[in-house]
TrEMBL record:
Annotated family: Belongs to the AHA1 family.
Residues annotated as signal peptide: none
Identification of the protein by name: ATPase
Domain Activator of Hsp90 ATPase homologue 1/2-like C-terminal stretches: 14-137
Name of one Pfam family that matches: AHSA1
Source organism of the structure: Bradyrhizobium nitroreducens
Length: 156
């Protein structure tokens, strides 16, 4: 039986270098990740933090950093009590040039069977990645409400 995981693949009209920058620069993430900032030096073993409204919502460690091809970090949620109890998960971004496009594959795994975290990221990642694609291709982010991140998850 396979372990629970979230996989998302999209094609973006951009360069691998620009996509890498959008994934690793708070200047970009604030625009498409609902105001969130990423903090890291993106070196193997370095800390990673995601901040929303000045509060660390998720943190981890850089597991792999191969610009502009592959980035991976551990991911531990801090904001919502129900999700804080779940184990550390892993996020992997794979960036592949594909003609004038870039294929972005996001794998988020390490979830427990029956946990709520998989459902939460399954709602959050599509909203975040749609904003990323729109920003890189059109120069503006879709007007997706922040509530889309928690759709289907009753955050208390």
């Amino acid at each position: 039986m396979s372990k629970p995981e979230f996989v998302y693949v999209t094609y973006i009209e951009t360069t691998a270098e620009k996509l890498w920058e959008a994934l690793t620069s708070s200047e970009f993430t604030r625009q498409y990740w609902f105001g969130a900032e990423v903090r890291s030096d993106w070196k193997l073993g370095s800390p990673f933090a995601l901040l929303l409204d000045g509060e660390i919502t998720d943190s981890g460690e850089i597991l792999e950093s191969d610009p502009p091809r592959r980035l991976s970090y551990s991911f531990k949620h801090h904001k919502f009590e129900e999700l804080r109890r779940e184990p550390i998960s892993r996020v992997v971004f794979t960036i592949e040039p594909f003609g004038s496009l870039v294929r972005l594959t996001v794998l988020h795994d390490g979830f427990v069977e029956g946990g709520k975290y998989l459902g939460a990221v399954s709602n959050g990642w599509p909203a975040i990645l749609s904003g990323l694609k729109s920003l890189l291709e059109r120069g503006q982010v879709l007007a997706i409400p922040r509530a889309a991140l928690n759709k289907g998850f009753d955050a208390k």
